[in-house]
Amino acid sequence: MRTNGTITYRIGAAEGQFDDDGQPIIAESVWSEPVRCFIKTNTHDNKGVSVGGTFSHEAYEVLIERIPEGLDTDVVRLVRGGRELGEFKVQDIQCVCLDRIRIIV
Question: Distance between CA atoms of 102 and 6, rounded to whole angstroms?
């Protein structure tokens, strides 16, 4: 498979867990090792306007060869061509065929 970037995913966060005193456990996010992938831009525009200024709207489709162990996450980081695209919430993970996984962010 042709690749043009890397994806890393958040692991080890203990969200929704509480200690013995009932206080929420706030864990540092740990990131996986980079996984080679193909990143395709679905949407990218700078037309968003809010009270405090403007913002960009971005959506990407990521193809990887297999689901890495521990990819049970809600946030990923994308890097394409040496440029960090950012951190994105995972919208969907689909099996495209026997050896391809599509992640929509």
Answer: 14
pLDDT in tens, the chain (105 residues): 889 999 998 876 555 667 777 776 666 678 889 999 999 988 766 665 557 766 566 789 999 987 666 566 788 999 999 999 989 998 988 888 777 888 888
Is the pTM for the entire model greater than 0.90?
A: no
Instruction: For residue 90, give the nearest of 80, 77, 81 by alpha carbon.
Output: 77
- Max CA distance (Å), the chain: 50
The C-alpha atoms of residue 98 and residue 57 are separated, in whole angstroms, by: 32
CA–CA gap between residue 38 and residue 13 (Å, rounded): 26
52 is written with which tokens? 């405090």
- Beta-strand relationship, 92-97 and 30-31: unpaired
